[in-house]
Amino acid sequence: MAADWCDQYFKRNYHAIDSVVRRTPMLSRPFLWDQLADFYQLQPDERRVLEEAREAGLKHGMSVPLFGPLGRVSVVSFASALDHADPQDRIGHLNALACLFHSACSEIARPCNDVCERKAAFSKREISCMRWLAEGKSSWEIGMILGISENTVNFHVKNAMRKLGATGRIQAVARYSPQCSLNCEERAPTAKSLTQLAC
């Protein structure tokens, strides 16, 4: 039944009208699906998705907003097929787990001081490439913006990854901080270098 619901959900693009997805960025703590209507005036399409989910066996749903680096928002949802399930009992546990997730994210995304002191200065091109990469641009798009080839963008990004001690672009973006880059560059303004990022 859950597989059928997933197929229906994606086939009908329910993510665009799902009240759980729509409201998650506005909520800072775990919430029950049944309580959404108490806080918001749900549109008919939003109510329909919740009703169809219940009919498919997803009863007493609960979601946990997760906030990551660079303003990213994700949601983890749980539901039970049992009529007597009471997710309210578990909401405190999920809130504690979400807090741990947020703490871990802040630790991962906060290496500015250490990285600046350990690594060589960034060039202006590396800073530009990393800023655009952090905004989700592809190497091709960055090349078009900066007027350089895609290969040159990749070269600069790889140099920045090496300086950040990152093994991948996602990790580099998580460690990257514009303020850190500017501070590093100010310490060594003559540094020269040639230089995408998931029912």
Low-confidence stretches: 114-120, 179-199
The fraction of residues in strands falls at: 5-15%
**Largest sheet: spatial strand order:** 1-2-3
Characterize the main sheet.
3 strands, antiparallel
Descriptive report:
The structure is a single chain. This protein has 199 residues and is mostly helical. It has eleven helices and three strands, in the order ααβααββααααααα. It has a three-stranded antiparallel β-sheet, sandwiched between helices. α7 (124-134) crosses α9. It starts with a helix and ends in a 12-residue tail after the last helix. Mean pLDDT is 76; it is low at 114-120 and 179-199.
Topology:
Layout (H helix, E strand, L loop, with lengths): L1 H10 L7 H5 L7 E2 L3 H4 L4 H12 L3 E9 L5 E8 L10 H18 L3 H7 L5 H11 L4 H8 L3 H15 L4 H7 L2 H10 L12
Antiparallel strand pairs: 1-2, 2-3
Helix pairs in contact: 6-11, 7-9, 7-11, 8-9, 9-10
Can you describe this structure in just a few lines?
With 199 residues, the protein is mainly alpha-helical. It contains 11 helices and 3 strands, in the order ααβααββααααααα.
Main traits of this protein?
3 strands, 199 residues, 54% helix, mainly alpha, disordered C terminus
